[in-house]
Amino acid sequence: MKVAVVGATGMVGEIMLKVLEERNFPVEELWVVASERSVGKTLTFKGKPYKVNGLEAAVEAKPDIALFSAGGETSLEWAPKFAAAGTTVIDNSSAWRMDATKKLIVPEINGDQLTSEDKIIANPNCSTIQMLMALAPLHRAFQAKRLIISTYQSITGTGVKAVQQLEQESQGLEADAAYPHPIHKNALPHCDVFLENNYTKEEMKLINETHKILNAPEMAITATAVRIPVVGGHSESVNIEFEKEFDISHVRSLLENSPGVEVQDDPSNNLYPMPLYAAGKDAVFVGRIRRDTSHPNALNMWIVADNLRKGAATNTIQIAEFLIAKGLLY
Q1: What CA–CA distance (Å, rounded) separates 20 from 13?
Q2: Where are the domains of the chain?
């Protein structure tokens, strides 16, 4: 198995290498790939040094799988070149997510859509993945008709520059800003850029990607995405209105029996999901599960996950594992 990690020097790329090692992914030959300015640098995988290669050399190597986390422009230009060489690309950018010819995959939810013909596969947005891990089993049982989403998102979703901004501001230093305002001791209702409808791109990703993954274009969804000075992961408050009646004990049972979901819901003992404890873990944590007292068929949940792992690197690698397990690579 020849595997390329494209964008290996970035935050998600580094986590990809870590997760590949942790999960003992069957890497027989590894290509670590990045932009020209990083070519020649050395990264470590399983205790061995690997020289960073450029994109052209990686395409010529014809890897079996290329795990992309190098930004949308790079993916649009280079993913088709890898695919044309016979490589299966799993892309973590937003470049292909809403392309009608490409699958948008969370393996636990819709992995069965994949075929050997899929040479470019899109990994959903981090906030979408964690929400749907909790929502999908409930949607199958009770048919969700409306979602009201509020997210509280880690600065790691923006990248290294945002982490540096928080560190510098917390020390009272002047920061090279990733955001238009201070992030230390602040909350910015501004994730990604604003669109003509006054929603941000992040908010619209939650809406559009949910419609596509659940194949539920009629589902009513609204979202507000907020950036907070947290490093460990994204948190989401989700209100779900269902078509069918539900019982809280049934909801809890469905979540407890969903692969990749961990219920943390004992308020009397101060047990509920928090990014501080989700950091470095692959599970999606769900708590504060309670009926909406203002509506008979509505439910509130609090969902937390490490956005760099299940929200990005781990889900990407799980897609690759699914392809191998189903014999879909060749």
Answers
A1: 11
A2: 2-124+312-325, 127-307
